[in-house]
């Protein structure tokens, strides 16, 4: 732990019970980080929950216990009781999968301005609007940047070769190979003398952006442009990296950290799976209340107004749960009839190449074999020995992942049934707060329809980003 009169910076291999309790007080916005930490705490030895390279980070002017006490005693609208913080889970060895999840209390006050979410709000400032005083928002920014600066140290200390226990890690050789590729992609191995390095975007630095390397003349007719360009490229490499992949990054953070208007100019790149003709891909965070889990709150009301507010929220939650119960019962009844007629059975992903390769072939996102085999899953299969026709997983951050139905079985309610069953059966593997979630691209109308039909609502906007830690300040 690093501690001073103005900052608590914690870096531990596993989350403390106090930190988990604190994040639970900030649901639903803390959900991605909380679920990832719960998975780490609940499955520390399965090779997915944690590895020797896992870090749990926390930054604030206040200790975890001070923030936890404040969240118990005061509602978030009581200014004197607000104590801000940021937290993260980091495991750089997981590349090409998500390496980092982050959260700060600024997210609790972000204003959703998303025309796709049917909120009725304007679209004047879609990503950066919030209801906090700007001074407090900047405090949250500082905590988040503090975590990024700590990640810079973590990245610099990562080994060239991973030391993985084959008894714990399912595919250690595959992971080592991924890591060697990651070191180049994430600018962890810059050999300036030989000109080695990695560029995320083709044509960066070219005048016309097409990678053709125009502009070889310096403008004076003496042909020094090529030399100047080479010098500029080497200087740019010195300013690069290391880089990390942050997943489920709230758009309010991406908006503020990239903008000099708020005092920062953190460089971010889109991930490799996004097509060249798309600048960025934004997701909606869909939230669900699961009827299979009890809703509990450890905070007690301190005044009549807060008690009324909590009662109203409880009634809203119960109304949503009732809708989900009715919808799920109808869906499951229809699906059970279809399954009986077509000889389909419920199952999970099996430890064989046929299942794993089928899932991998149906998504453009790189899903690793050990990840797919280690995550909770629900499958509909064509008989006990048959091929899968529908499937879904719970990701390490507790979100619904890789929901898919084969073409010939679509329109039968299987996607809804799988989504309901995987959440109902496996949310409890993470926590008992009753929150489920799914990340859906803004343009994915089909998946949005599935989420809406089982009682989901849009909570906020997010994306995945490659963050250049060379632009966050000195390492901590």
From TrEMBL:
SUPFAM superfamilies: Acyl-CoA N-acyltransferases (Nat). Pfam families: FR47. Residues 198-248, 296-316 are annotated as: Disordered. Residues 212-224 have a biased composition (Gly residues). One of its GO terms (molecular function) is acyltransferase activity, transferring groups other than amino-acyl groups. Coiled coil: none annotated. Residues 380-460 form the GCN5-related N-acetyltransferase Rv2170-like domain. InterPro entries: Acyl-CoA_N-acyltransferase (IPR053225), Acyl_CoA_acyltransferase (IPR016181), GCN5-like_dom (IPR013653). This is GCN5-related N-acetyltransferase Rv2170-like domain-containing protein. It comes from Pseudoneurospora amorphoporcata.
């Amino acid at each position: 732990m690093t501690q001073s009169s103005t900052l608590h910076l914690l870096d531990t291999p596993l989350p403390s019970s106090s930190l988990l309790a604190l994040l639970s007080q900030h649901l639903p916005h803390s959900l991605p980080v909380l679920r990832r930490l719960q998975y780490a705490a609940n499955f520390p030895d399965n090779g997915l929950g944690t590895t020797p390279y896992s870090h749990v980070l926390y930054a604030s002017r206040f200790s975890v216990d001070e923030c936890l006490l404040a969240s118990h005693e005061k509602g978030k609208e009581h200014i004197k009781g607000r104590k801000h913080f940021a937290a993260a889970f980091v495991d750089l060895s997981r590349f090409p999968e998500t390496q980092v999840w982050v959260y700060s209390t600024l997210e609790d006050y972000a204003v959703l301005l998303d025309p796709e979410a049917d909120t009725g709000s304007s679209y004047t400032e879609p990503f950066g609007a919030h209801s906090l005083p700007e001074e407090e928002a900047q405090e949250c920014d500082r905590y988040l940047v503090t975590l990024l600066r700590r990640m810079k140290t973590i990245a610099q200390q990562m080994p060239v070769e991973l030391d993985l226990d084959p008894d714990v890690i399912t595919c250690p050789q595959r992971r080592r190979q991924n890591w060697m590729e990651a070191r180049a992609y994430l600018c962890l191995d810059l050999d300036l003398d030989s000109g080695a390095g990695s560029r995320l975007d083709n044509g960066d630095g070219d005048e016309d952006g097409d990678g053709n390397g125009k502009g070889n003349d310096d403008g004076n007719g003496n042909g020094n442009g090529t030399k100047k360009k080479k010098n500029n490229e080497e200087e740019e490499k010195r300013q690069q990296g290391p880089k990390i992949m942050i997943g489920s990054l709230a758009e309010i953070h991406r908006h503020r950290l990239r903008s000099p208007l708020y005092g920062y100019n953190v460089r971010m790149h889109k991930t490799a799976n996004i097509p060249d003709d798309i600048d960025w891909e934004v997701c909606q965070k869909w939230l669900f209340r699961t009827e299979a889990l009890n809703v509990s709150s450890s905070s007690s009301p301190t005044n009549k107004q807060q008690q009324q507010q909590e009662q109203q929220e409880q009634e809203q939650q119960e109304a949503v749960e009732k809708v989900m119960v009715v919808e799920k019962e109808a869906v499951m009844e229809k699906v059970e009839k279809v399954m009986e007629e077509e000889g389909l059975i419920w199952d999970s992903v099996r430890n064989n190449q046929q299942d794993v390769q089928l899932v991998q072939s149906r998504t453009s996102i790189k899903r690793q074999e050990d990840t797919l085999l280690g995550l909770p899953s629900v499958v509909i299969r064509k008989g006990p020995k048959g091929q899968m026709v529908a499937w879904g997983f719970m990701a390490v951050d507790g979100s619904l992942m890789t929901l898919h139905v084969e073409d010939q079985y679509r329109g039968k309610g299987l996607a809804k049934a799988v989504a309901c069953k995987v959440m109902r059966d496996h949310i409890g593997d993470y926590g008992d707060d009753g929150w489920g979630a799914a990340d859906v691209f803004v343009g994915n109308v089909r998946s949005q329809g599935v989420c809406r039909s089982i009682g989901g609502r849009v909570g906020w906007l997010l994306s995945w980003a490659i963050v250049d830690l060379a632009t966050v300040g000195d390492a901590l």
